[in-house]
């Protein structure tokens, strides 16, 4: 509905939704549907407060020096901080090029006259005192309320930039204007948090009513140079099903094409239009419904009973290549986007159901799923279908195992609630022996094959079992550890950059601060207490899963600590020894807030 009600600028193509939420502060209202936007602000000569001002520090590193200044707002950057060369002529920052403007109720920093940058709030002209309304102002100017002093003034985009949580401003004196500035900082902080809480509550309420927006499509849409393949009709295989069968080529039949995961073609199949192996082409999906699930966001349930082996849905989205995939992941990382819908078809193509897709994009992960992905050949092209692996009663949530390849700083906790839950997305589910999983708060005890030479490490050996062979190397520059795929419970090599288990807490998956020196177990700040102890033969820190050598008692351990380590090292070891954390660079494709990249492998 909002898309139908727009306020349009009379002088240019700019348009905003009706209301104060989207419109740029300083736009002049002509009628309910007509405005003159802030792009038409004209600075008057002789008016010092109409001039454009830039900050004297870089917005990235906060240091001074030779800066690249935006021509439209106060932003300034070191070219090196943006990884660009100093351009010739005028330059505009990314926000200004994207059309981002100050809005009403924004908390901002303002430069007025010779005063320092001061925190203020943009007010709507109808909500300010009458005498302030009557002050002379131009199109593009808006009233700001200064915290601390309670004053008002009209200003424009060239003299304001957004207030960020944690901003402190420059140093201030304890008396006079410095005291007022301190009060202004406290008021701005309180007001910013108040507005943030209200906005988040409103967004949560809106998100609870309907899923985030996306474009519904029925077939895969190629993006950029990606191609959709089509076979010649003479190349499509013919099955041996008989037209007299009750459901020829159905999922319960012995159709040769179905066994080989080929879809029949109506011009080739001997059953013609009666063929029941054309689910992809005819989009024969059981009726489903999008629902809000507890703790897992949106999900998809079936509205009728589904039999084992039955076609449930096709995974639909944009077909992108790896270069575009990494570009989208980088964008998501920079914009704190944490939800991904990428699924790999082959080495050249990936389905991204994020911006465009069908209902299958709402299916959640489960370590004990009722559906699975299968790659089928449909008219010469590879498509990904979701098929039931068991009988699914009506009203049951539809799930499949994402088989994620995760890149980034942290692992994602799995909330599927299955008895064999692995605890984290991307980890292989536990073997089901009739025992239920331990509660999430407790650390799952794991048994590892004893290393042949515990305490002695070699970069040519697996850090988990101590044997050589084909190994997967950790992608972290400061880490030289390597592992067998089988020791990681993986069947294929991780996609892109991969950080080994030693860098993720065994309990919660966050960055580790305390490390076992004998195996990949490690722990974060919250879970390191009591998790590590000195290993008697060497005094190295190890976890509780390593048995002490025979003939070693507590006195031997104490003596070993006393003779082989300095007092500082001994006390550090006993206290849990927080080891220094290696520097971490963000992966090219990663998961967010510390963005993570998830690419499901069909």
TrEMBL record:
Residues 55-99 form the PHD-type domain. GO terms for cellular component: chromosome; nucleus. GO terms for biological process: methylation. It comes from the Eukaryota. Residues 234-284 form the AWS domain. Pfam families: AWS, C5HCH, PHD, PHD-1st_NSD, PHDvar_NSD, PWWP, SET. One of its GO terms (molecular function) is protein-lysine N-methyltransferase activity. PANTHER family: SET DOMAIN PROTEINS (PTHR22884). This is Nuclear receptor binding SET domain protein 2. It comes from Sander lucioperca (Pike-perch). The lineage of its organism: Eukaryota, Metazoa, Chordata, Craniata, Vertebrata.
């Amino acid at each position: 509905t909002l898309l139908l009600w727009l306020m349009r600028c009379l002088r240019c193509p700019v348009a905003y939704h009706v209301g104060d939420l989207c419109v740029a502060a300083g736009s002049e209202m002509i009628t309910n549907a007509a405005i003159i936007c802030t792009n038409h602000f004209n600075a008057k000569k002789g008016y010092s407060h109409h001039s454009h001002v830039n900050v004297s520090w870089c917005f990235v590193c906060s240091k001074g020096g030779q800066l690249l200044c935006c021509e439209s707002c106060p932003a300034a950057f070191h070219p090196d901080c943006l990884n660009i060369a100093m351009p010739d002529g005028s330059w505009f920052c990314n926000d200004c090029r994207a059309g981002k403007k100050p809005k009403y109720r924004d908390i901002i920093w303002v430069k007025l006259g010779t005063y320092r940058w001061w925190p203020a709030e943009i007010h709507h002209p109808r909500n300010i005192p009458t005498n302030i309304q009557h002050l002379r102002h131009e199109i593009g100017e808006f009233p700001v309320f200064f915290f601390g002093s309670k004053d008002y003034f009209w200003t424009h985009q060239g003299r304001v930039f957004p207030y960020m949580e944690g901003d402190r401003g420059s140093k201030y004196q304890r008396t006079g204007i410095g005291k007022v500035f301190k009060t202004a900082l406290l008021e701005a902080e309180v007001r910013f948090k108040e507005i943030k809480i209200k906005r988040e509550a409103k967004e949560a309420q809106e998100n609870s009513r309907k899923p985030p927006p996306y474009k519904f499509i029925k077939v895969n849409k190629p993006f950029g140079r990606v191609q959709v393949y089509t076979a010649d009709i003479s190349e499509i295989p013919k099955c041996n099903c008989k037209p007299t069968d009750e459901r020829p080529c159905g999922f319960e039949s012995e159709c040769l094409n179905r066994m080989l995961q080929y879809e029949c073609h109506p011009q080739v199949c001997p059953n013609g239009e009666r063929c029941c192996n054309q689910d992809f082409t005819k989009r024969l999906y059981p009726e489903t419904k999008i629902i809000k699930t507890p703790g897992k966001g949106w999900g998809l349930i079936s509205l009728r009973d589904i039999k084992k082996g039955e076609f449930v849905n096709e995974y639909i989205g944009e077909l992108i290549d790896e270069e575009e995939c990494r570009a989208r992941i980088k964008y998501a990382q920079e914009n704190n986007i944490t939800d991904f819908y990428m699924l790999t078809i082959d080495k050249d193509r990936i389905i991204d159901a994020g911006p465009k897709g069908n209902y299958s994009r709402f299916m959640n992960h489960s370590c004990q799923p009722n559906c699975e992905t299968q790659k089928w050949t449909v008219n010469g092209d590879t498509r990904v279908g979701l098929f039931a692996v068991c009988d699914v009663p009506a009203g049951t949530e539809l799930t499949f195992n994402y088989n994620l390849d995760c890149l980034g700083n942290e692992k994602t906790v799995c909330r599927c609630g299955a008895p064999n839950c692995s605890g984290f997305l991307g980890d292989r589910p536990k073997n089901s022996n009739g025992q239920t999983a331990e509660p999430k708060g407790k650390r799952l005890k794991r048994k590892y094959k004893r290393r042949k030479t515990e305490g002695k490490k070699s970069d040519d050996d697996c850090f988990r079992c101590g044997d050589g062979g084909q190994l997967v190397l950790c992608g972290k520059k400061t880490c030289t550890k390597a592992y067998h795929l089988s020791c990681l419970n993986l069947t294929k090599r991780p996609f892109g950059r991969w950080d080994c288990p030693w860098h993720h807490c065994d309990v919660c998956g966050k960055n580790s601060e305390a490390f076992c020196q004998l195996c990949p177990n490690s722990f974060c700040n919250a879970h390191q207490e009591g998790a590590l102890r000195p290993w008697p033969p060497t005094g190295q820190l190890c976890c509780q899963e390593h048995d002490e050598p025979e003939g070693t008692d507590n006195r031997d351990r104490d003596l070993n600590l006393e003779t082989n380590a300095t007092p500082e090292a001994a006390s550090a070891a006993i206290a849990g020894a927080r080891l220094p954390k290696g520097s971490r660079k963000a992966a090219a494709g990663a998961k967010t807030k510390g963005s993570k990249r998830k690419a499901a492998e069909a």
